[in-house]
Amino acid sequence: MLKVTDSMLANAKSCPIRNVLDEVGNKWSLLVMLSLQGRRRRFMDVKRSIGDITQRVLAQALRKLERDGYVARQVYPTSPPTVEYWLTPMGKSLLEPMGKLVMWANQSFEEVMKSRQRFDAVKAATPAAREKQAGFQRSERIGI
């Protein structure tokens, strides 16, 4: 198990969690990288594969991934310019541990959805209904 110290967490500039995982751990970056897994793709191909990402957000995600060395791009001198994106060796190496997270998310999806439904139902209920769902009766709570 990785040893994480308080000093590691407290120093924002040297904290790997803030500086590395924050960028690749957001949903768009991971989806973009998964879209590029094993192939070169043009911008609109990546957008179509993800579906609900805006062009602006996709451009930002690709720029950040390129800046950090996970994605490379090549611009071809056509009109309009053709641009292809692909994963670098570092991007490919990141997908291995992130793939385990994606598998866990797929396996746990139904359980997480059920948990959210239970939580939301309790929050939406009246105070009396919340107490009943929590196993408390008013008389027990006030000592009658």
Tell me what you see in this structure:
This protein is mainly α. It has one domain: Winged helix-like DNA-binding domain superfamily/Winged helix DNA-binding domain (Arc Repressor Mutant, subunit A, Orthogonal Bundle), CATH 1.10.10. It is built from eight helices and three strands, in the order H-H-H-E-H-H-E-E-H-H-H. It has a three-stranded antiparallel β-sheet. Helix 3 crosses helix 4. The N and C termini lie far apart (50 Å). The mean pLDDT is 85.
Fold topology:
Elements: H1 6-10, H2 16-24, H3 27-36, E1 41-42, H4 43-50, H5 55-67, E2 71-76, E3 82-87, H6 89-124, H7 127-133, H8 138-142
Antiparallel strand pairs: 1-3, 2-3
What fraction of the residues are assigned to beta strands by DSSP?
5-15%
Ranges where pLDDT stays below 50 over 5 or more residues in a row are: none
Output the CATH class name: Mainly Alpha
By DSSP, the count of extended strands is 3
What structural category arises from helix and sheet content?
mainly alpha
CATH superfamily: Winged helix-like DNA-binding domain superfamily/Winged helix DNA-binding domain
CATH topology: Arc Repressor Mutant, subunit A
Number of separate structural domains: 1
- Strand arrangement within the widest β-sheet reads 1-3-2
Query: Mean pLDDT, as a whole number?
Result: 85
- Give the N-terminus to C-terminus distance in angstroms: 50 Å
Query: How large is the count of helical segments?
Result: 8
Largest sheet: 3 strands, antiparallel
Query: What is the radius of gyration computed over CA atoms, rounded to a whole number of angstroms?
Result: 22 Å
Which term fits the overall shape? extended
> Considering DSSP H and I runs of 4 or more, what fraction of the residues is helical?
55-70%
String of helices and strands: HHHEHHEEHHH
